[in-house]
Amino acid sequence: MTDKTASDILRIAVAQLNPTVGDVAGNLAKAREARADAARQGADLVLFTELFLAGYPPEDLVLKPAFLKACERAAQDFAGDTADGGPGVIIGTPLKRKSGTHNSIIVADGGKILAERYKLDLPNYGEFDEKRVFQAGPEMQGPVNFRGVRLGIPICEDIWGDVGICETLAESGAEILLVPNGSPYYRGKVDVRHQIVIRQVIECGLPIIYANQLGGQDELIFDGASFAIGADKTLAFQMSQFEETVNVTTWKRSRPAAGAQNGNNPEVWVCSEGPMSKIPEKEEADYRACMLGLRDYVNKNGFKNVVLGLSGGIDSAICAALAVDALGEERLRAVMMPYRYTSKDSLKDAEDCARALGCRYDIVPIFEPVEGFLHALTQLFEGTKEGITEENLQSRARGTILMAISNKFGSMVVTTGNKSEMSVGYATLYGDMNGGFNPIKDLYKMQVYALSRWRNTHVPPGALGPSGEVIPNNIIDKAPSAELRENQTDQDSLPPYPVLDDILECLVENEMGVDEIVARGHDRATVTRVEHLLYIAEYKRRQAAPGVKITKKNFGRDRRYPITNRFRDGG
């Protein structure tokens, strides 16, 4: 056996971290801490994620010259750190050059920046609008020689499209592809990423390391789950999802099997050591995404605590559970605001939920403020029938009380409407829609039920809440109701939620036509009514709080329909 040279083994640390957009100094400090950790683990190189020093996505901050200068100074300072003989680094940052402002990475070692690489394929769909603020790299750039190993470094979208960047890098002599990413979560996204990378491995014949950002940024959740696919198209390592971590992986140079495709290289790199974490499925993944999104939104925006209206219904109960899991029981104040239509069951269920979670629980009756509003409007409303207007006064009184508590104590209001309700406008502007953030905004009603049942039998990793039944079964089992009039249930106004959710998913996520949806077995009149409600509620959704993105198409970033819109699908 021949002696191994220094470049026959490469220990690559993947830094799956949670940066904060705009906190350049904080992100640099986090990068330095991760590099020191990687050095202790014996790493040769640390791979960070896309635009790490800026935080991703920085959006229009990139248009601010002072921000760009701060990012470049941080990149230069970090490059200088590598003079200590420790690991080299690949880290993302925006860079302004003669060819434009680029989504870039720098490669640094020995105290110097060895190379810059610019993103070529700028995404401009769904939640992405990078063409608004960045210019694509002016030309294809070849591999970077790092300690005798030729590294190809495409950036995120560069491997998602069909532009042949991975194949070109292989033909240019790259031996391994290292890909920094800012890939947001939606249900099933890990499998999608694996398939994208496998396709590129098949085309280029090289192993690909996929480093993904972690953390919540407004509506987006970056779930980590970094991984690598070997040249043999198998999973080489898999990092955890929804957890901040730095993992060192060991790569060894070896001869490929006879006839194996490997670009222009006679040898192939194989991962001999790395994590193999289990990826959570379905309800666990969605719950942890909602929890992470709420935690980061509250903490990154500097709120000390949160408040929500606890009605005894399923939506406010799961939001209370998420708040306690994300922030701790001491940071949630739950407020029951009963009126004459609030049932004894709801009073008991709300109290039982708060007790199970261990959070503060207050009762603020709204009889007097509602009656005050009605009295003030008596003359103006004379001769009209009571109806939705009077019902909405109850909701708006509750919204005003929650905002008063927010103003007085600095607590962010957590709003609790689900996607089914937000889709068809079953929510009151300046009432139950009041709030700073909604952790279940992109969950349909039946998904809320599924996550509630899951949480009652599981405690997710990193949760600060208790084990056991935290959402009383009576809340899950009873018919949902806004309790704004006597004996009211949601199904008085809406189709059954299993029917409504399926129609909405067809309309929103899949953009299906009325005829297609009817062919699935739905009543045509119901489908056209739901489509109409979806369109006319657009103005409400424009004024709704941001919330965690869980599905492929959320309201806001992904689905941007006009408010003024007369189109209806006649079938």
UniProtKB/TrEMBL annotation:
<comment type="similarity">
    <text>In the C-terminal section; belongs to the NAD synthetase family.</text>
</comment>
<dbReference type="InterPro" id="IPR036526">
    <property type="entry name" value="C-N_Hydrolase_sf"/>
</dbReference>
<dbReference type="InterPro" id="IPR014729">
    <property type="entry name" value="Rossmann-like_a/b/a_fold"/>
</dbReference>
<dbReference type="GO" id="GO:0008795">
    <property type="term" value="F:NAD+ synthase activity"/>
</dbReference>
<feature type="binding site">
    <location>
        <position position="125"/>
    </location>
    <ligand>
        <name>L-glutamine</name>
    </ligand>
</feature>
<keyword id="KW-0067">ATP-binding</keyword>
<keyword id="KW-0547">Nucleotide-binding</keyword>
<feature type="active site" description="Proton acceptor">
    <location>
        <position position="50"/>
    </location>
</feature>
<dbReference type="InterPro" id="IPR003694">
    <property type="entry name" value="NAD_synthase"/>
</dbReference>
<feature type="binding site">
    <location>
        <position position="189"/>
    </location>
    <ligand>
        <name>L-glutamine</name>
    </ligand>
</feature>
<dbReference type="InterPro" id="IPR003010">
    <property type="entry name" value="C-N_Hydrolase"/>
</dbReference>
<feature type="active site" description="For glutaminase activity">
    <location>
        <position position="119"/>
    </location>
</feature>
<keyword id="KW-0520">NAD</keyword>
<dbReference type="Pfam" id="PF02540">
    <property type="entry name" value="NAD_synthase"/>
</dbReference>
<feature type="binding site">
    <location>
        <position position="540"/>
    </location>
    <ligand>
        <name>deamido-NAD(+)</name>
    </ligand>
</feature>
<dbReference type="Pfam" id="PF00795">
    <property type="entry name" value="CN_hydrolase"/>
</dbReference>
<feature type="binding site">
    <location>
        <position position="183"/>
    </location>
    <ligand>
        <name>L-glutamine</name>
    </ligand>
</feature>
<feature type="binding site">
    <location>
        <position position="421"/>
    </location>
    <ligand>
        <name>deamido-NAD(+)</name>
    </ligand>
</feature>
<feature type="active site" description="Proton acceptor; for glutaminase activity">
    <location>
        <position position="50"/>
    </location>
</feature>
<feature type="active site" description="Nucleophile; for glutaminase activity">
    <location>
        <position position="156"/>
    </location>
</feature>
<comment type="pathway">
    <text>Cofactor biosynthesis; NAD(+) biosynthesis; NAD(+) from deamido-NAD(+) (L-Gln route): step 1/1.</text>
</comment>
<keyword id="KW-0436">Ligase</keyword>
<feature type="binding site">
    <location>
        <position position="416"/>
    </location>
    <ligand>
        <name>ATP</name>
    </ligand>
</feature>
<feature type="domain" description="CN hydrolase">
    <location>
        <begin position="10"/>
        <end position="253"/>
    </location>
</feature>
<protein>
    <recommendedName>
        <fullName>Glutamine-dependent NAD(+) synthetase</fullName>
        <ecNumber>6.3.5.1</ecNumber>
    </recommendedName>
</protein>
<dbReference type="InterPro" id="IPR014445">
    <property type="entry name" value="Gln-dep_NAD_synthase"/>
</dbReference>
<comment type="function">
    <text>Catalyzes the ATP-dependent amidation of deamido-NAD to form NAD. Uses L-glutamine as a nitrogen source.</text>
</comment>
<comment type="similarity">
    <text>Belongs to the NAD synthetase family.</text>
</comment>
<feature type="binding site">
    <location>
        <position position="392"/>
    </location>
    <ligand>
        <name>deamido-NAD(+)</name>
    </ligand>
</feature>
<dbReference type="InterPro" id="IPR022310">
    <property type="entry name" value="NAD/GMP_synthase"/>
</dbReference>
<dbReference type="InterPro" id="IPR000132">
    <property type="entry name" value="Nitrilase/CN_hydratase_CS"/>
</dbReference>
<feature type="binding site">
    <location>
        <begin position="309"/>
        <end position="316"/>
    </location>
    <ligand>
        <name>ATP</name>
    </ligand>
</feature>
